[in-house]
Design goal:
Elements (H helix, E strand, L loop, with lengths): L14 E2 L36 H12 L2 E2 L5 E2 L5 H27 L4 E6 L9 H6 L6 H10 L8 H10 L3 E9 L3 H10 L11 E4 L16 H14 L2 E8 L2 H4 L7 E3 L5 E2 L2
Parallel strand pairs: 4-5, 4-7, 5-6, 7-8
Antiparallel strand pairs: 1-9, 2-3
Length: about 270
């Protein structure tokens, strides 16, 4: 969130609640996990080609194991199919990282191994916010939410990140959230158990007003340009991105990463 520009054809930059599953590979690298809303560009010929919006929302709630508190807040369940799917992806990532980090340790030289992670629905779960706004993201509602509310960690990701850091991986967060949301984002990561460095050198947010010089596209970067360009910048600092985590294929495209891990997200699509 802002999730770098969200895509809504013609009217805004965000499309929501399309087909709930996509199976694909990103730039020839292995991607583990499916379940992402997609933007469908063809014009339906009849109503039968359009998923019923209410039924799609109900399926999303069931997939996340929707749990409602006494004060009306919605949370995902740790026993949900979503949580089970995430745990499977994390197990594959841990197996891969165990070997990748051991190889770096045996080599005993630069570049230093690193992992790069998106924020929304990769390390922090937006489900409560999405239900609160009826799957209707706006910058204003997001700012209001983030200023006063911590999102839960994506199930198990804080433990995976802390483990990887303890095994020698440098950890970088790379999000499309705007620079003005830095303090809220860092507070949230810290409060939900990400015990890794969270300074400006390790947390990258999108700064359209003062884009960094290592991005030739400046303020006009697409998500893929912004994220792959930043990963290349991280590697230029003496790191090897051994794993890149994201819930959107645009988080994972563009190279600069040995392995990609796709987290599930049927709630929205970011090109």
């Amino acid at each position: 969130m802002p999730r770098p520009a969200r895509f809504r054809p013609a009217l805004s930059r965000r499309a929501r609640l399309g087909a709930t599953t996509v199976a694909a590979l990103v730039a020839g690298t292995a991607v583990f996990g499916v379940g992402q809303a997609t933007a469908e560009h063809s014009v339906p010929r009849t109503d039968k080609e359009i998923p019923n919006l209410t039924q799609v929302q109900d399926k999303i709630k069931a997939y996340y194991g929707d749990t409602v508190t006494a004060d009306g807040e919605h949370y995902a369940s740790s026993h949900s199919n979503y949580a089970r799917q995430v745990r499977g992806i994390e197990a594959k990532a841990r197996t891969y990282l165990t070997k990748a980090l051991a190889r770096h340790d045996r080599a005993g030289k630069q570049p230093k191994p690193a992992i790069v992670l998106d924020m929304d629905d990769t390390t922090l779960l937006t489900y409560n916010y999405e239900l609160q706004v009826g799957f209707h993201y706006t910058e204003e509602s997001q700012d209001k939410y983030l200023a006063h509310t911590d999102m839960d960690p994506v199930f198990g990701m804080n433990r995976l990140v802390n483990w990887a850091h303890a095994k020698g991986a440098e950890v970088f967060f790379l999000t499309g959230r705007k620079e003005a949301q830095r303090d809220w984002s860092v507070r949230n990561l810290k409060n939900v158990g990400y015990g890794v460095p969270l300074d400006r050198r390790h947390v990258y947010l999108k700064n359209k007003e003062n884009p960094p010089p290592y991005l030739p596209c400046g303020a006009t970067c697409t998500t893929v340009e912004y994220k792959s360009g930043t990963r290349k910048h991280i590697e230029s600092l003496g790191y090897n991105v051994v794993a890149n985590f994201g819930d959107q294929y645009s988080d994972l495209s563009g190279g600069a990463g040995d392995r990609t891990f796709k987290l599930p997200n049927p709630m929205y699509y970011l090109p």
